[in-house]
Amino acid sequence: MNNIPEPVRAVTVVQLPDGTYTYADAAHLPAPQQAQPIVQHIHQAPPDRTVQRIALGSGVGAGAVAAGVYFGPLLVGVLTAIAANLAMLAFLAAVMAWGVVTVVKSVGGNDGKTATKSLTKARRR
Length: 125
Fold this sequence. Notes:
- The chain is mainly alpha-helical and 125 residues long.
- The protein is built from 3 helices and 2 strands, in the order ββααα.
- Strands 1-2 form a two-stranded antiparallel ribbon.
- Strand 1 and strand 2 form a beta hairpin.
- Helix 2 (62-107) crosses helix 3.
């Protein structure tokens, strides 16, 4: 490549497939290829629709399936809220019963102690 003199106009020196060099007009050269960026889309897995497919296959209409899709999670949420409320009420009832027993033991004197003993005996039977 050193033995080729530089040209006067805007041309480029290119290497041919056989390894020799030649002049080429820059306007007639193909545009250089640029690497295309790889775009990768990452998605979440689709929800499992096995129950809906089975329901549609068994003759249930699309409206019933849509209602199941909508009301299913809603029903789970409502039942969870009800269970939490019942658990809180049971806890409050246990605390209040413990408080009543403690007050009766401490304030009642001998009558209170006798009452708690009779309740304890009644539970054992």
